[in-house]
Amino acid sequence: MTVIESTAQLQLAAPQPREAPWGLYVHIPFCRRVCPYCDFNVYARQEPLIPRYLAAVRRELALLADRWGRGPVRTIYLGGGTPSLLTPHQVAELLDAIAAIFVLVDQPEVTLEANPETVDTEKLAGYRAAGVNRLSLGVQTLVPQGLKVLGRAHRPETPVAAYRAARATGFRNVNLDLIYGWPGQTRDQWEQDLATVLSWQPEHLSLYALTIEPGTPYERAVRRGILRPLDDDVVAELAELAMEQLEKHGYLHYELSNWARAGCSRSIHNTIYWRNGFYLGVGAGAHGYLGGIRTVNERLPARYIARVEAGDLPIADMESIDPRTELVETMMLGLRLVADGISAAAVRARHGVELSEAYGPELDELVQYGLIEWDGERLRLSRRGILLANEVAVRFLEPRGTLK
Known about the structure:
Pfam families: HemN_C, Radical_SAM
Number of helices: 16
Number of domains: 2
Number of strands: 18
Organism: Thermomicrobium roseum (strain ATCC 27502 / DSM 5159 / P-2)
Largest sheet: 9 strands, mixed
CATH class of the largest domain: Alpha Beta
Domain Radical SAM core: 16-252
InterPro entries: Aldolase_TIM, Coproporphyrinogen-III_oxidase, Elp3/MiaA/NifB-like_rSAM, HemN_C, HemW-like, rSAM, rSAM_sf
CATH architecture of the largest domain: Alpha-Beta Horseshoe
CATH topology of the largest domain: pyruvate-formate lyase- activating enzyme
CATH superfamily of the largest domain: tm_1862 like domain
Shape: globular
Protein name: Heme chaperone HemW
């Protein structure tokens, strides 16, 4: 893997992007408060920067199009942070700028992440009118104890009101984010969370096990003995409970942490990531991957804005991804797709290698242990492998053979 030291090298170092549709991620790094478990690039009490920041984002979009071309863009994802701190007018201006700069294909999936305490019927109606057609609500839990442990400010009834407002304003593609495995959580509490949100019948659910990230207040609390994480075996039991309940209610478990209701769309944007596809990352701290080049933007909003206002792409780090690393990343990400798995034909076409050639002994051993399903053409995690996904993934770090 080669680190590119100057943005001037970007044009020469990058091969032409493939024709597959791109994703476009726009990072909104502002929050009213930062949750104690969060290690994302987010900042509290900097809302006055939002107008200037959005102007910089629109300018960065134009700079990226000049550098990389104008698409095709299949998905737009406004993530954060708390994108629902933006007004509907600000979202409309941003989406209009994207539509004017890039070639959009197939009625793009346009997702906006929302904190339930920051939205109401009027605001959600404005987002719909602006062009947002997929809403992702950060519910996390409906248990008062859990909300307190997770440092969430909203009450259990707040997500209920937000979800009803989303339906009332015409959203027909709604994702709910939930967190399980928080300190003190019981099986009954998790079962009740699942039963409640399943009764709402959202199109999509994302369920994440709480992880203690280095440098967060949670990590410091664990180190000092103030906070005691749940035992790994208990967390695994909660994960199995979720798989059982969602399957029973007709949800397809298509990715390690994601389920789509029968007949409803998966997250098209995130699937681009999991298939190791191409995407532009816009905004402070955003990551992009296009034409064999991975980029990471300046993290601090003020520094990001200054770079863009000076007419420069705000890239802090770049890497050229060599063929071997690209294959490893295809495997690491593709293993997450528990429904579709990894296609040997797709690997052959993209990387010029047979899965059985690159990973023969590993495949045989993992089949023997019952951790994967492998028929010579498609590789998937088994039910047991889903619970040990990290242990399976590390077996694919050293491919054999010659790659194109």
